[in-house]
Design brief:
2 copies of one chain form a homodimer.
Chain A (H helix, E strand, L loop, with lengths): L5 H20 L8 H11 L6 H12 L4 H22 L9 E2 L2 E2 L1 H4 L2 H19 L6 H15 L4 H11 L6 H27 L4 H28 L2 H4 L5 H4 L5 H5 L1 H18 L8 H12 L3
Helix pairs in contact in A: 1-4, 2-6, 3-4, 3-9, 3-15, 4-6, 4-9, 7-9, 8-9, 9-10, 10-14, 10-15, 14-15
Chain lengths: 297, 297
């Protein structure tokens, strides 16, 4: 532990906070229907890097947001993320058996339970967020943001474009649009939820946060594609090389590996630049941009 | 049209209002991703009795709620209902090919699109409800109610209990619990959403509405079971006799047909009695109880 940086300690504390918060906000496995609740917990707890809650907390730090509100907002976002993974892994979607190094939910339980657990996690996310103990106007704004980011103007829309793209050549622009919805929308929502836990942002602040979100959202996907092409399944905790096998367009398939790496680095610098107006309170956001680009899984 | 009662005219006007409201609140089929948006509209528009929005409006009438707020709340509830039907019909659940007289969504489109359309409809329901133009405190209460009613404390929980019950003998009490969650929770939510569009209910009013909701929720399911056992698929617009074929416990299988019919009638009278404290403003709620019990599809 002696050689941990302050940022690493911060990340560990967020992960611990999120594990505890999610565990408290999810129904216990002992409550009827037990199998559904067990599957919801299996899908959400004890796994994941918690990148989205980290964005909530890092953004909240800029706006002096209370930790309890950030933990609740982070839990809501993470429930949406967890539900999306459960449904993505289903046979009619990516048909994947491994996630975070464990059997996927429909393998561990069954398809119907996986479907329902994902559905119930989505409802729970909104139920949890609607119980924020902050000004009602900001809670409502958060619910609007999460609803849009999760639905067809965001994540579900990106998934649908992704589905339609299998076996087709996409332009770089189309690929960006798809990932902007599929991954970027929820990352951006996380950043704005963190902010709103503190106060409404000014127009300039909102503009800066949006630029930051765009940069890290794209960087996140470029790096995912690089890792899918270069890392092994054991390191990733999920099936590697799947995009190529599924003939899905990726940054690596369009740009090649070297140019993809250069793009990720450029986006990292863009993310830093977008935060120029903020002082050292933005240091966690800056370090998260570095982490997203420099991670190895 | 000459022989329509005032109640029939009221129902038709709600159906027309809901069709228009839902059409406006759902993304157009021309918007990318077109196939997803088309499937969301297919699942929601031009079909269904709109019982839940009728409950929203009938309850709203008691509390002088503005029609625009009721239409929006009704649309949110109907989107949750529509999404649940899309997912229920999937091969891993009920594996049904016919709904409201039309091919189910996964037959008309494909399984992945049906999964995503259901997911996106759920998000959209919360996005729509979070944009209510009423006091923020009441909007937030509505979001809490809808989140709980849709999730594992409500509809999804009931579905999970239903899944676990296939091939098992349930007691009447267990059957009531299952349907109370699976169907009753969203019907009750509809009633409270209608109320909250006007104002917060008093404790006595909330108690009366809850008793009414319990009675019609159960009646709804008892009558569904009676119709499943006695009507043909053409009349129902969905596959009849499916519960018996799937060896699912029903009121008819536990009580028999005569006692099921007597129970439905008793619940209809209970529903009326629960509304005793209200004046003629509750007449639509009273007539909806009659309709739920006396319908033939």
């Amino acid at each position: 532990m002696a050689d941990m940086t302050a940022f690493e300690e911060w990340m560990q504390s967020i992960q611990a906070t999120m594990e505890e918060t999610l565990s408290n906000l999810l129904p216990p496995s002992s409550r009827v229907p037990e199998r559904l609740h067990d599957a919801m917990r299996y899908a959400t707890l004890d796994g994941g890097k918690r990148v989205r809650p980290m964005l909530v907390f890092a953004s909240g730090a800029l706006f002096n947001a209370p930790p309890s509100a950030l933990a609740r907002a982070g839990a809501a976002v993470e429930m949406i993320h967890a539900y999306s993974l459960v449904h993505d892994d289903l046979p009619c979607m990516d048909n994947d058996v491994l996630r975070r190094g464990k059997p996927t939910v429909h393998i561990q339980y069954d398809e119907a339970t996986a479907l329902l657990a994902g559905d119930a996690l989505q409802s729970q996310a909104f139920a949890v967020l609607s119980r924020q103990d902050i000004a009602p106007e900001r809670t409502i704004e958060m619910l609007q943001i999460l609803g849009d980011a999760a639905g067809s103007p965001g994540m579900c829309g990106g998934q649908a474009i992704d589905l339609a793209s299998v076996g087709h050549q996409l332009s770089l622009e189309q690929l960006e649009q798809m990932h902007g919805l599929k991954t970027g929308a929820l990352l951006e929502a996380s950043i704005f939820l963190g902010c709103l836990c503190g106060r409404f942002p000014s127009a300039d602040e909102a503009h800066a946060l949006k630029a930051y979100a765009n940069a890290i959202g794209l960087a996140f996907q470029v790096v995912d594609d690089i890792l899918d092409a270069t890392a092994d399944s054991e390191t990733l905790g999920k099936t590697a090389g799947k995009d190529a096998a599924d003939n899905k367009p990726t940054y690596v398939s369009i740009l090649g590996l070297d140019k993809s790496r250069a793009l990720a680095e450029k986006l990292r610098l863009d993310a830093h630049q977008s935060l120029d107006m903020f002082d050292e309170k933005a240091s966690c956001l800056r370090q998260l941009a570095d982490l997203i680009v420099q991670r190895d899984k």
